[in-house]
Amino acid sequence: MLRYTLMRLGIFVGCFVVVWGLVYSGLVPRGLGDSNGIWIVLLALVLSAPISFVVLRKERDRASEQIVQRVDRMKSNLDANRSQEDAAVDEAVRSQG
After folding, report:
1. How far apart, in Å, are the Cα atoms of 23 and each of 19, 20, 39, 66, 96?
2. Model's pTM, two decimal places?
3. So where are the chain's domains?
4. Which of 38, 46, 53, 96 is the most exposed place for a label (fewest CB within 10 A)?
5. How many C-beta atoms surround the C-beta of residue 40 within 10 A?
6. What distance in Å separates the CA atoms of residue 19 and residue 43, rounded to the nearest whole number?
């Protein structure tokens, strides 16, 4: 999961540098007034999102598999805890009755 996040961040930074270069060379229009920094960040986000979607497909699938495994493990742990609690309650009821 960390690897996927770092890869996405790397793609964003690369797009940010490219957009920054294009804006300051005059090939892409500057933002209005003092919004130039926000303009560059937004353009970089718009460019990096589809690139990440296509380029990182396999890594995203791996990350989602890891998340599914963690969720399944947590569910099984919760089920085991519930059954232990149910057994403890049943035992307490039997000893009182």
Report:
1. 6, 5, 9, 39, 78
2. 0.67
3. 1-55, 57-97
4. 96
5. 22
6. 7
The pLDDT value recorded for residue 97 is 60
Q: How far apart are CA 12 and CA 29, in angstroms?
A: 20
Q: Which residue has the tokens 């930074």?
A: 13
Helices (H), the chain: 2-25, 36-55, 57-96
Report, as ranges of residue numbers, the positions in the chain whose pLDDT lies below 70: 32, 34-35, 86, 97
> Using CA atoms, how far apart are residues 54 and 56, in angstroms rounded to an integer?
6
What single-letter amino acid sits at 33? G
Residue with tokens 């919004």: 35
Contact by Cβ (8 Å): 28, 22 = yes
